[in-house]
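Hi V.,

Quick status before I head out on leave. The structure for the redesign project is tokenized and pasted below; the design run finished overnight.
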């Protein structure tokens, strides 16, 4: 297993190109299952999660070609010849559940393994299933699989009111409803930019959808969808992560392709902490103003609130802030597993339930640490860049799920970072 060695202490200066969003790409790819015509995604990120989704789609009979070094995904599902998403692939990645809605909508039946447990809490898929049931699906849960059928071979439009906001359930429902018979109204829908991106793509394919980016999305089902070419939206989590690099280390970095509307609540917190963020013609420029970062309180919320996927990285910043910060995690239980690792580097963090109190220290110290999940792993790299001495982050396969070329991107700005093959 590879690890990443970081030598901390230096300022960062330069530019970092931001890739297409992993989470958008993972929901756009299953849209190929809705049509016999080709669907091409440009600006795709080069990540292991994307390769896992490629394998899953191929196992169902889709043709998926990775072009231009992986930046373009050309997909074609002229027919689905296997309607079972196997546990061996699904267990690697929860987003696999997103093939359920499209297969069911197109062919009236699908069998998908239930995703297993996950390092950041229980994460059930009940809301996905309830939405599909509301559209008429008959579901049978046995042997760890969801066996789904649409009576008469077709889902029908319905009013679906989510009890709380779920990105994945909104996506599954959107994918399914676009081919259902009649009108579907999604209430309390997620408003994330990845949802808006999915709707833009579905619209290019011929879907009739209104209200994306608001709490109520209305889908007028159509009989068939066609092919399209669609650019994947910028990854706001990769963007926020690299915005934190100069914030933690000092210096100035421009994140190419960055947009404030993707990271509004996060940028506000950076400003409060004493980090300057300015829009340029090509992206977002981030610099630490004079002196130490100031403590700020952060609560994670669905978009447009502060994203849970930036909580771990923000904690790395606050470890060296002046004063005491409280981070409240409202989306996932048990998402503070990076805290004990940061403590190994000299951080002062007290986790109590869904809250973490961080009392800033002058300096972190390098240490061997272990990545526990995707965002935790990158938070440890950021902390290592700011620490005195060497930090070795092990189990970086988590990192490779969500960040392409981390060493090159940070290295180009002067960071001392290298991968150790293991
Ligand atoms: C997506 C993102 C993930 C991000 C999360 C929240 C992808 C591939 N992943 O995950 O990176 O951290 O949004 O922004 O896009 N829940 C249920 N039942 C369900 C579904 C969700 O109880 O059927 C709960 C979850 O356990 C969690 C909350 O709802 O507590 C929100 O989860 P959700 O928005 O669905 O996250 P994902 O779509 O899994």
């Amino acid at each position: 297993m590879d690890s990443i060695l970081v030598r901390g202490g230096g300022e960062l200066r330069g530019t970092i190109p931001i890739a297409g969003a992993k989470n958008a790409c993972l929901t756009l790819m299953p849209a190929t299952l809705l049509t016999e015509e080709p669907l091409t995604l440009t600006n795709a990120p080069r990540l292991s999660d994307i390769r896992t989704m490629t394998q899953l789609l191929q196992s169902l009979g889709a043709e998926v070609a990775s072009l231009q070094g992986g930046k373009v995904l050309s997909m074609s599902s002229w027919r689905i010849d296997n309607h079972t998403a196997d546990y061996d692939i699904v267990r690697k990645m929860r987003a696999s559940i997103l093939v359920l809605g499209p297969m069911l909508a197109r062919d009236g039946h699908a069998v998908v393994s239930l995703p297993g447990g996950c390092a950041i809490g229980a994460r059930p898929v009940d809301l996905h299933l309830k939405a599909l049931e509301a559209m008429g699906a008959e579901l049978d849960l046995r042997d760890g699989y969801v066996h789904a059928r649409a009576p008469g071979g077709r889902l029908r439009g319905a009013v679906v009111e989510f009890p709380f906001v779920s990105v994945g359930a909104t996506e599954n429902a959107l994918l399914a409803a676009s081919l259902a018979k009649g009108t579907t109204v999604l209430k309390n829908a997620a408003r994330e930019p990845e949802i808006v991106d999915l709707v833009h793509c579905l619209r290019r394919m011929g879907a009739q959808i209104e209200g994306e980016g608001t709490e109520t999305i209305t889908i007028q089902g159509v009989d068939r969808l066609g092919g399209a070419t669609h650019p994947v939206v910028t990854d706001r989590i990769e963007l926020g992560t690299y915005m934190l690099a100069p914030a933690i280390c000092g210096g100035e970095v421009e994140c190419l392709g960055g947009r404030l509307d993707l990271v509004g609540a996060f940028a506000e917190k950076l400003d409060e902490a004493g980090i300057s963020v300015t829009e340029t013609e090509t992206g977002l420029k981030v610099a630490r103003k004079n002196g130490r970062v100031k403590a700020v309180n952060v609560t994670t919320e669905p978009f447009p609130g502060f994203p849970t996927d930036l909580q771990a990285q923000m904690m790395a910043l606050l470890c060296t802030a002046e004063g005491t910060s409280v981070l409240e995690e409202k989306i996932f239980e048990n998402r503070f597993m990076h805290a004990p690792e940061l403590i190994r580097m000299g951080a002062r963090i007290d986790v109590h339930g869904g809250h973490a109190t961080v009392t800033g220290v002058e300096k972190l110290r390098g240490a061997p640490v272990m990545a526990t999940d995707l965002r935790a792993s990158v938070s440890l790299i950021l902390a290592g860049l700011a620490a005195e001495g060497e930090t070795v982050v092990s189990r970086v396969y988590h990192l490779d799920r969500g960040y392409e070329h981390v060493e090159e991107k940070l290295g180009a700005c002067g960071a001392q970072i290298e991968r150790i093959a293991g």
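Above is the designed sequence. The chain has a mean pLDDT of 96.

G. will cover questions while I'm gone.

Best,
W.
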